[in-house]
Design brief:
By secondary structure, this protein is mainly alpha-helical. 84% of the residues lie in helices and 0% in strands. The chain has 16 helices and no strands. Helix 7 runs parallel beside helix 9. The two termini are 32 Å apart. The C terminus is likely disordered.
Length: 398
């Protein structure tokens, strides 16, 4: 039932976007991109990944997402060279979505069949009412994710849109394939813990926070150091303006990664209205900061708006969410932060070539974090569980 409702809403939003485009409400140079990405939203509404995730069968979901990433990355690497090729990357994204959705749909229909039950108006109203907070919160979240691109498109020129999108696209990729995927897999487990025991729920939240903090800081460090080398390989030398944008955006991503832990906890603990309030406030803050900072500092201001809003909302969530207040998370952060500080100090002090300095900085982080015993056997088991590696191995062996 909810599947049909979601498709109906997606179709409505797609034609609404086309209507706004027809009325000339979007800049002429971005209309094609908006139309193509809107088609991607329509295609993604057909996904049935949630069926397999709800049953904790993530092996095929993992495969489909990896395949989606490959089908998107390969055409972008070989064919996207200038800002004029932005539409090609959009079409590659839609193509990768379509193949992924088709594979998952084929698996689900073969395993579980298809229900032909009719939906009454009262049933549809009941489902919409119960799902409304999370659905609207998801819209706010997506709005915050992509609003920066629209602001750059309105306030700046076409080249700036291309430079910002080049850095932002990688952030979206990491968000979708690492953070959102992990959160969706962990949600059923969190919900079961909440129903069985508040103590177990908070304990698991604490462990998940610890895991994400251990993953987030190295991702931010690696992305910051690798960006000057990565972008010429992916996009060409003319995208050097995207490097600093990406280096700022990736730390906003780290704050979002930590914040998302509490948001999943809100959904699992049946506190969806609080989740809606958080995403609505985030959308408002990001809208204001993006417009102001983009007007003053250009695309770097847009990236800074993302970082500032994510950090502000993270602190806000920690203050208002009761399960976050009941558990101290500071002691799980100090080891990654101390390791990061040592790594940054090495990078600043050394005067080697950029490559050697980056390697030395990364090694410093690993050495300090290992010396502080930052990871335990329990962390490794949880990491495998979140990624579905244990179930993937069992599925392959079976």
């Amino acid at each position: 039932m909810s599947y049909c409702i979601r498709i109906t809403i997606a179709v409505g939003l797609y034609f609404l976007t086309l209507g706004l485009e027809f009325l000339g409400l979007f800049p002429s140079y971005s209309t094609r991109l908006i139309a193509v990405f809107s088609l991607g939203v329509l295609v993604w509404s057909f996904t049935l990944e949630w069926v397999l995730e709800g049953r904790q069968e993530v092996a095929w979901v993992s495969f489909a997402r990896v395949l989606k990433g490959v089908l998107f990355a390969v055409p972008v690497y070989f064919f996207v060279r200038t800002t004029r090729d932005a539409s090609l990357s959009a079409w590659a994204y839609v193509w990768s979505l379509a193949v992924s959705v088709a594979i998952i749909a084929l698996i689900v229909f073969r395993r579980y069949g298809w229900s032909h039950k009719r939906i009454s108006v009262s049933q549809m109203r009941q489902v919409l009412f119960s799902a409304f907070p999370v659905g609207l919160a998801t819209i706010f979240s997506q709005y915050s994710m992509f609003f920066g691109t629209f602001v750059v498109g309105y306030l700046l020129n076409e080249s700036e849109v291309g430079y910002f999108s080049a850095g932002h696209r990688i952030i979206v990729f990491i968000w979708a394939y690492v953070i959102v995927s992990s959160n969706r897999v962990i949600l059923p487990t969190l919900a079961r813990y909440f129903l069985s025991s508040q103590i177990e729920f908070q304990t698991f939240m604490r462990k998940f926070f610890r895991l994400c903090s251990m993953v987030a800081v190295p991702i931010g460090l690696l992305g910051t150091l690798a960006a000057p080398t990565l972008f010429p390989i992916l996009y060409g030398n003319e995208y050097s303006s995207s490097v600093l944008v990406f280096q700022v955006l990736i730390w906003g991503l780290e704050a979002a990664m930590v914040r998302s832990i509490f948001e999943v906890g809100m959904i699992a603990s049946e506190d969806q209205r609080l989740y809606l309030r958080v995403t609505a406030i985030q959308a408002f803050v990001y809208t204001c900061t993006s417009i102001i900072l983009t007007s003053v500092f250009g695309i770097l201001g847009t990236a800074a708006a993302c970082l500032l809003s994510e950090v502000a909302i993270l602190f806000y969530v920690v203050v208002i969410y009761s399960h976050a207040r009941r558990v101290s998370y500071v002691q799980d952060l100090w080891k990654p932060l101390v390791s990061l500080s040592g790594s940054a100090l090495v990078w600043v002090v050394l005067s080697f070539s950029p490559y050697l300095r980056n390697i030395a900085s990364l090694l410093t982080y690993v050495i300090i974090f290992t010396a502080l015993k930052g990871i335990t056997a329990d962390d490794v088991r949880l990491f495998k569980s979140v990624l579905g590696l244990d179930r993937l191995v069992n599925s392959v062996q079976g």
